[in-house]
C-alpha cells in the first residue's frame, strides 16, 4: 500500500488520548527518519505548519529550523504571534524574514488576481530558497501536507504550487500530518499545547490579504484591510461568533466614493464585510449577523480606520459569488 493512502483501520483522532498516541508514534518515526539531521520548515503560522513545527520541536528540538516569511499580507498580529509562540514559548530555532518591501515592490501596479497570486507564490519560494542556501547541513524539508492536499491536489500545498524548490535544494520530505484530516490536525495541535487562536483559526488563503486588497495593492489600502479585519475579528470573538461562522473578513476595493466627514466632503475607500458558512467551501451561505453588531462594527471601522468613509455587508451566497472577491 502506498504511504499516501490512509489505511481503513486508522482510527479518527478525536480525543486527547488518541492525539497523544499519534504524537508519540510520530516522534519515534521522525527521529528514525532524520536521526541527527537538520530539518527546514516554512512556518506561516497557519494551522498545518504550526502543528508540524510543534511536533518536530518535540521530536528533534533545535535541529528543526523554522523560517517565517513575513510577506506583508498577513493579518494584524500574526507575525508577532509566530515569533512569540515558537521562539519565546517553545524555544524554537526560528528565522524571521521581513520581506514586506520586497513583496509589495513586486506587486506594485499588478492588477490581475491570478498574476498577483503567482507573484506572491513565486516570491515566497525565492525568499525561502535564499534562506535555505544560507544554512549548512540541511537534509530534510518538513511540510504541513494534510490528507485533503493528497486527495485534491497531488500532495502540493496550495501556496507552494509555483514550481517548488530548485533541484540542488531537493531535500527529503518529512510530512507527519499527511494522513490526517483538518479536524484531526486541530486535535493534535491542541494536545501539543498550541494556543486556540492558532489551532482553531478560520481558513486564510495563501496569498493572504493580497486577494482582499482588490486590484493593485497599495500600502494605504492594505492597512485599511488589515485594520478593518482586526476590528471584525475582535468583535466576532467578543460576541461569540468566532468558531460559529466559518470564514469572515473584510475587503477593500480599488475605487473611492463620496462621503461627508466633520461637515466636509471626502472621497475615500469603502470596506466590505463578508461572513459565510460552508462545509466544504464549494458552496456557502451568508451568515445572519445581528444588525446591532453590524452597526457597531461599522461605527468602529469608520472611527478607527483612516481613509474609509463607507462600510457594506456582502449578501451574496456562493454560487454565484465566490467566498473571496479575487
Ligand atoms: P473561493 O473564493 O474560491 O474560496 O470561494 C474558497 C476557499 O478557498 C480559499 N482561497 C484560497 N486559499 N490560496 C489559498 O490557499 C488561494 O489562492 C485561495 N483563494 C481562495 C478561500 O479563502 C476560501 O476559504
Structure commentary:
The chain is built from ten helices and ten strands. It has a five-stranded parallel beta sheet, with helices on both faces. The protein is globular. It is α/β, with parallel strands linked by helices and 326 residues long. The chain has two domains: 16-199, Rossmann fold (3-Layer(aba) Sandwich), CATH 3.40.50; 212-313, GMP Synthetase, Chain A, domain 3. The longest helix has 22 residues, at 113-134. Helix content is 40%, strand content 18%.
| Strand segment count | 10
Class of the largest domain, according to the CATH hierarchy?
Alpha Beta
Give me the secondary-structure category: alpha/beta
Unreliable segments (pLDDT under 50, ≥5 consecutive)? none
Distance between the amino and carboxyl termini: 40 Å
- H-E string: HEHEHEHHEHEHHHEEEEHE
Which molecules other than protein and nucleic acid are bound?
A: xanthosine-5'-monophosphate
Shape by Cα distribution: globular
How large is the count of helical segments?
A: 10
Fourth-level CATH superfamily of the largest domain:
HUPs
Average pLDDT level: 95
Task: Please give the structural blueprint.
Blueprint lengths: L15 H19 L3 E5 L4 H14 L3 E7 L7 H12 L3 E6 L1 H8 L5 H22 L3 E5 L4 H7 L18 E3 L7 H10 L4 H4 L19 H20 L8 E5 L5 E5 L2 E14 L7 E2 L4 H14 L3 E6 L13
Parallel strand pairs: 1-2, 1-4, 2-3, 4-5, 8-10
Antiparallel strand pairs: 6-8, 7-8, 8-9
Helix pairs in contact: 1-2, 1-7, 2-7, 4-5, 9-10
The structure holds xanthosine-5'-monophosphate.
